[in-house]
Specification:
The chain is an alpha+beta fold and 157 residues long. It has one domain: Beta-Lactamase (2-Layer Sandwich), CATH 3.30.450. The chain contains five helices and four strands. The N and C termini lie far apart (49 Å).
């Protein structure tokens, strides 16, 4: 009986492994919770060293919030803005500064496209050429926020 149960368990395990590796599914790289928290704390450390008071949001590749920090003194209105910047970067797999520059240079009304936020302060994290998450910040100037997200994204490993 034990041999039959062991054989059944082994067959079930092989079948579930084969199903998980099926050609109908694709593995998706994504930032881990631990890495998201590390990146949020790293960004806050940079912000403190630059005397900034920001909200920092880290999202996964689907644009879902994984980590968030509102620094002491950051404006309440910046909470949603930082999350929206991270979400825009993640869902379109590009830094929000690209949208910002295109909107300004070509007078494009891309801010009306759902999910696109043409603003500084949103950047993606990559593993090789693959986007694995994003960061969004809000609470200071465009230049300060953009520099911070770019420097934080460079630190991603």
């Amino acid at each position: 009986m034990k041999k039959i149960l062991a054989a059944f368990a082994s067959t079930a395990l092989c079948a579930s492994t084969a199903f998980a590796q099926s050609a109908s599914t694709a593995p998706q790289l994504n930032i881990t919770t631990e890495a998201a928290l590390d990146m949020a704390h790293y960004a806050v450390g940079l912000a403190e060293s630059r005397h900034l008071k920001l909200c920092v949001a880290i999202e996964d590749t689907d644009g879902n919030l994984v980590a968030f920090i509102r620094m002491q003194g950051a404006y309440a209105g910046c909470v949603e803005a930082s999350i929206a910047k991270a979400k825009s970067a993640a869902r379109f797999a590009r830094n929000t500064m690209e949208f910002f520059e295109a909107a300004r240079a070509q007078n494009l009304p891309i801010g009306f496209v759902p999910g696109i936020l043409p603003s500084a302060g949103g950047a993606v994290f990559k593993q090789g050429d693959t986007v694995v998450g994003s960061i969004g910040t809000s609470g200071d100037t465009n230049e300060a926020e953009q520099a911070l997200v770019v420097d934080t994204a460079k630190n991603f490993r």
